[in-house]
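This protein record is not my work; I was only asked to verify it. Would you go through it and say whether the fold makes sense for this chain? Here is the record exactly as it was handed to me.
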Amino acid sequence: MNRKPRLYGHNKARLPDPTNHRRSYEVKVLDQADGRYSVVKRLRQRLSKLMDEVDASTIAKEILAHRAIFLLAYLESQEVESLDGEQMQWKTYLSVLKQLTDVLKALGLSHAVKSSKSLEAYLQDATKDKSLRVHSG
């Protein structure tokens, strides 16, 4: 039988003792991860590419890029587990996918697609260079 934790008396919930140095909190970041693992190498490569793509010149963009890479890794691991026959948690998966989309929009990646050349502009540039001849007829 599951009982709710008591919030009073001798067995009340307590925060950890801040003077306990045996279990001190330590900040861990991707830069400190063991680079011998292929997963860590892949995450670092993706992070580098993403930061180049979004021109992460501010700390805010760098933080968002780190979160985007982590969310992407989580989604990919869920997809692989699904292919291995495990039950997919669709609610969680779709929620994380929405979060990743929001982070990428905040990084400004939705604007990168709009700046690509149209087919008409490409053909005009190509005909000026005479590397591509367009026949009308």
Summary: The mean pLDDT is 77. Residues 31-107 form one domain. The radius of gyration is 25 Å.
